[in-house]
Amino acid sequence: MNPKLLFWVPAALRMGIILAGVGVLGFLFGAMPALIVACIAMALLVFVQLGYLYQLSDWLDHPHSAKLPDGWGAWTNIFSRLYRLRRDDEKNQAELTEWLARFRQAMHLLPDGVVIMDDVLFLEWCNPAAEQHLGLTHERDKGMRVTNLVRSPDFMDYIILGRYEQPLTLSFRERKLIVHIIPFENRRQILVTHDATETERTEMMRRDFIANASHELRTPLTVIVGFLEIAASEQLDQATRMAHLKLMTEQGHRMQHLIEDMLTLSRLESVDYPMRPERVDVLKLMGQIQRDARALSAGKHEIGMDVDGPDILGSYDELYSAFGNLASNAVRYTPAGGTIHLEWKEGPAGARFSVVDTGIGISPEHISRLTERFYRVDKSRSRETQGTGLGLAIVKHVLLRHGGTLQIKSEAGKGSSFIVCMPKAAIAPRQPELLLN
Ligand code: ADP
Question: What is the pLDDT of residues 145-173, one digit of tens each?
Fold first, then answer.
């Protein structure tokens, strides 16, 4: 129905009823009493309207939908419409607040930084990652120009040139950041920051590794190619030829060892090559390691062994490679006549494998870097003894996969101790004694 009619018809009816009542009273009791009653009725009507107006103005101070009065006459309709409007408003606001909270949470968890700026780069809002990347504090820096906060010539150039279609790689506060400005909404811009420090470090390690590996392979290859060229161009006597062949074979073996170690390392690092723990018979493992060490030493050292510990859970081959590397290092870096002691023991924190030698030892400044790939204290000694510079890196990776740690104690000229600590969790449960009938 027409809302105008809906308002005016009941109002006119109400007035009509009052006037009719007053008319009847005038007819029955005379004009004066009718006039008095009419005045009272009108005053009452005005009073009721004023009462509702007051309630409305009072409600407007705290417009909560649940607090709206019911009303009378035209007020019923007004209040019910106000109620609907307010309820829709409250619903929208609740939804908006929820969305905002979700958005804020997402922005807080985002690993990338987001800074919202106006068209002249004044900071409006930023998330915690951006605070961390750029050294900002939202509360403190709000309203300040971003170029005054991020003081970097490269960043300034990026802004001046305005080539925002390309991101910028920025070295800032000892981090490598990839920053990108994206204009939006005409008068606003977003600055996105991504921390690429770790990616850069990995990339650098990869480059170093390739450079080192190529260098390591090039040296024996140059020797082999050199001898082959001599053999092709000159008539050599049998003894020289044999000597050249011997040297070439040695260099070939060196390349072979290097490639084997590189493959082992890459396998240990690969996620597609998970460790499958098995029960490792430590007595058998230690026996094998001692035999290998004795073979390598060829009687030049005294090699003792003490095994008094439990079996462990892990990969036999990987542990053989790690413990074997430590034992072979002890032989290779201990002059003839020295002693080497291998030990496997259970301790309060788990079990430990140790190799103690009386060899050349290591100066303290080298110790923390020994497990880096291709790091050697004495390059020529390592090469003379068929070292690849990858042995301790392999040990480190095997231990990482087994939850173990490596401790190195050494003193130059006095000998070294390499101690592997295996956690309690890696100790295999004791096997029930076999009862022999
Ligand atoms: P390498 O194949 O050269 O032996 P490793 O990674 O096994 O490579 O060892 C790195 C370096 O640590 C060696 O080059 C050597 O300088 C030093 N090193 C390792 N073990 C010993 C040890 N028992 N005594 C003295 N120096 C050692």
Answer: 999 999 999 999 999 998 899 999 999 99
* Ligand 1: nearest atom to the Cα of 394: 6
With a 6 A CB cut-off, is 354 part of the ligand 1 pocket?
no
How are beta strands 339-347 and 302-308 bridged, if at all? parallel
Give this prediction's pTM: 0.68
DSSP bridge pairs for 416: 410
User: What is the rounded distance in angstroms from the CA atom of residue 147 to the CA atom of residue 135?
Assistant: 13
How far apart (Å, rounded) are the C-alpha atoms in residues 82 and 60? 11
CA–centroid distance, residue 79 to ligand 1 (Å): 88
Q: Which residue CA neighbors atom 3 of ligand 1 most closely?
A: 389
Residues near 71 by Cβ (< 8 Å), separated by ≥ 6? 52, 77, 78, 79, 80
Task: Let me know how many helices (H) and strands (E) the chain has, helices first.
Answer: 14, 12
Ligand 1 close to Cβ of residue 326 (< 6 A):
no
Which residue, among 359, 345, 247, has the nearest Cα to 293 in the 3D structure? 359
357 touches ligand 1 (CB under 6 Å): yes
Tens digits of residue pLDDT in 48-100: 989 999 999 998 888 887 888 888 888 888 888 889 999 999 999 999 999 99
C-alpha to C-alpha distance for 371 and 375, rounded to whole angstroms: 7
With a 6 Å cutoff on the Cβ, whether 330 touches ligand 1 is yes
